[in-house]
Amino acid sequence: MEAYSLSRQRTVPYLIKAYFKNNIFMIEYTHHYFGGSYEYMENIIITNNKLVYEKYKDSYEIVYNEEYTYLDVLEYVRNKIHEGHILATHPLSGSIKPNETPYKTVMISKNKKGTVDFDSLSIIESSIATAKKFMENKPTPKWTESILDDFRVIDLSLIENVINKLI
Predict the structure, then answer these.
(1) Backbone phi and psi for residue 115, each to the nearest 5 degrees, phi listed first
(2) 148-160 residue pLDDT tens
(3) Checking CA distances to 51, which of 35, 61, 109, 157 falls within 20 to 30 Å?
(4) In angstroms, how far is CA 150 from the centroid of its own chain?
(5) d(Cα 132, Cα 127) in Å, to the nearest integer?
(6) 93 Cα distance to chain centroid
(7) Structural domain of 145
(8) Domain count of the fold of the chain
């Protein structure tokens, strides 16, 4: 599946906030454009969430590993950025803290840029540092399967909203 993205990313264009309000799950997203023009771009999804994998395995290239931790996903994304890929979604999207959920989904460009995109690298390095700080202060709890299912659904909802906006 294809998507449109910014050719010059001063920041990641899709930032998402998810929260509960009056027992209703709410999702907000905004676009931050700092110059550049639209260019055609296909994307890869990196996730440790089986719901994301099941939903998008036939329409997107997906790197899925259920054994990955939240931090493993971010570090995998960082390695891909070093290879020339560009962030298409923010690694810390949503309002759930990195030490609260074990699930993370990030989208990157399928095509590699000729060089490292330093904006993407800066964002992912900062995200990794933030995630480590939260996890060192308070490790992710051992949640029940029911709560884990809720976190899977929230993570899926975050990427669904981005993908629906891109289509």
Answers:
(1) -135, 175
(2) 999 999 999 999 9
(3) 109
(4) 17
(5) 9
(6) 6
(7) 2-166
(8) 1
